[in-house]
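Forum: Protein Structure Q&A
Topic: Joint prediction for protein chains with partners

I've read a bunch of threads here and the consensus seems to be that you should model interacting components together rather than docking separate models afterwards. I'd like to see that in practice. Below is the full input, 631 residues plus whatever partners are listed. Could one of the regulars post the assembled result?
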Amino acid sequence: MFGQKQDLELGYFARGDWTKGTQQRLEAATGVPYATENDLESQLGDLGLYADANARALSWLNFRGGVRTDLFTFNVLDNCAAHDVAHPSRTNPPVDQSCLTQQDFGRPREQNQRTATSSVGLLPRGTVIVGPFTGFSFNGSYGKGVRSIDPTYITQDVKTPFASVDAYELGVSYGGYIADNSFIARSIFFETDVDHDLIFNQTQGRNLVGLGTRRTGWVGAARMTGSFFDESANLTLVRSVYEDTHVLVPYVPDVVLRSDTALFTYLPVAIQGKKIKGTLASGITYVAPRALPFGQRSGDIFTVDGSATLGWTHYEIGLVVTNIFDNQYRLGEFNYASDFHSQPHPTLVPERHFTAAAPRGIFGTFAINFGGP
Amino acid sequence: MRASILLLVVIASACVGTTGGDVIDFPAAASGPTDAEALKTNGFDTDLGWHVVLTKATLHIGALYLSQSQPVSGAQATSCVLPGSYVAQVTTGLDVDLLSSSPERFPTSGHGTTLHALTAQVWLAGDGDHDVDDSSDKTPILVVEGTATRSGDVRPFAGTITIASNRVAQGGPVAGSNTLCKQRIVSPIPTNVTLAHEGGLLLRIDPRRLFVNVDFAKLTNGFTDDDASQPTVNLYQNLHAASAIAPLYTFAWDETLR
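Posted by a regular:
Agreed with the consensus. Here's the joint model:
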C-alpha cells in the first residue's frame, strides 16, 4: 500500500499470578512477631487482546499505533480481614489480637474473608516517526496504560480502580557513524500523568496507592561503540509533582546520571593457540538529592564501580570492585516519626532516618560461558 | 559551550521545589497568664463566690506535643497518643511559675514541622527515666498555696498533687480506658497554632481555672493527694481541663520569642 511495506499484528496476552504475602511487625530485640498487618492469598488474572499496526505513508513518515484491551480478574483471600471493631463485646473485648474473630456488638466472625472482582481497561497508543534525514529521526508518542492495584484495595464486586497512566513523548534520535565508530543518541522530552500513583509509606514500609502525580522531564542517551571500546551514558531529569498541590513527590530523584565504559582487546598472549581477551570496565552513577517529606532533601549519591576480566575460550576470571572510592553515602533517606525510647518522653515528630550504603566491595569471579560465538 | 550552559540550566531547574513544610527547631516557653502578678496581690473570685489570693502556684510539665489531627469523639477506647501526624514536640520538663507572666524557657528547644496544629497535649509527668505509665514516678505536678475568703470565712490552703500509683483505679487499669497515661496526659486541647521559622511556642496556664467548682468550705486539711474530698477531686479534674472555652492551657506562636 502506498508503495511501502505495511505491518499489522493481532495477538493476545495472558498472565496469571498466584501470590501469598504476609506483613508482620517484629519486636526489635527478639524478632518475635507481635502484630499482623496483612495476610493475603491472591490470584490475579490478566487477559489482553491487541492490534498493532505500522503504517508507512511515505518513506520518511511512519504511523505506529494500536489498541489493547485487558481484562483483569482479582480473587483475594484475606486471612486477617478484621483488624478492629467499632463496638466490641463488653464481656470479652479483643485486647491485642491482630486478626479479630468478632464483629459489631461482639457477634462472632471468621478471621478470613474472600473478595473477587474484575475490570476492563482500554489502552490506546500511537507514534508518529518522521525521518530519518541524514541519520536523524523525530517522533511524538502518546500512550495510555494501567497498573493493577494492591490486593488490599480489592472490594467485592466493586469496579477496581486501576492506576491509570497517560504518557506523552517528543524526541529526536540519531543513528550513524563517527570516525568509523557506531554512534546512536536520543533526546526525549516526556510527561506522564498517573491518577493514583504508588507513593512510599514509611509506616507501612512499602508503596501505597496515593494521589495523582505528574512527571515532566527529559532523558538523553548516547552510545558509541568502536573496535576496542564501548561507551554508554544517559542522563534523566525529572520534576515529579502532585497534581493537586503541585508540591514535589517525595523520594523521587530529580537527576540521575549513569555511564558505563568498557575497554577490550586481545592480549599478546595465547594458550593453545587461542588469545586471551582483556576487558576493563567502569560504571559511574550519580543520583541528585531527592526530595523528602517536610521540605527536606536527601544527600546525593555518587559511586564508581569497576571490573577487570580475562577471558580465554569459554572461561573468564575477573575482579570486581564496587564503590571503588569507598564513599560513605546514604542509600535510602526518610523523614518520619519514630521513637526508640532514647529519652523519657517519646519522639513523635518526623526525624531524618537513613540506611547506610555498602562500603567498598572486592569480589573475584569465575565464569564458564556455554554456547555463543 | 552553549550546550553545556543549557544543560546546567536544565539540571538546576530540575532540582528546585519542595514537598511542602520544613523541619525546624524552635524555642518553647511557658508562663502564667498575662495578669499573673495580680493573682498574688489582688486575687480573683471563683464561681462559688470565694476570693482567692495565691502565694504559690507551680505546675510541672514533662512534655508538650502539637498534632495535626482532631480526634473524633465517640465511645470507643482511645490511645494516649493521638492519631495522625504530630507537628511539634518539647520533650524536656519545666516547673512553671503560674504567678509570673514572664515566659520561662524550656531547657532545650522544641522540634517540629512548619505545619498547622489543631490539638495539643500537655504531659504532666516527671523528667526521670520513667515511662509515662510508670506508677512509681511521684514527681510533684501541682503545688498551690494561698488563702480563700468568703463572707468572713478565711481558709488558708496548700496542696501538692502527684500523678502516680495514687491515680490508678482499684484493681488496676482496664485496657484502653484507664491507663496511667490517660491521667498524665491532658488531651486533646483545641489549638490553632502554625509553626514558623521565626518565633517560638508559648504556653500560658491560667491558675484561676484550677479552682472552678472548688468549695473551700469542704476543705478541712488542705488539698490532699487523693480523691478524699470534693475540693481535691475538682482541683485534680480541673488540672485536666482541655476545654476551648475558658481554657486552662493556651498555646500560641509568639514571634517575639527567641
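Chain B is about 15% helix and 35% strand.
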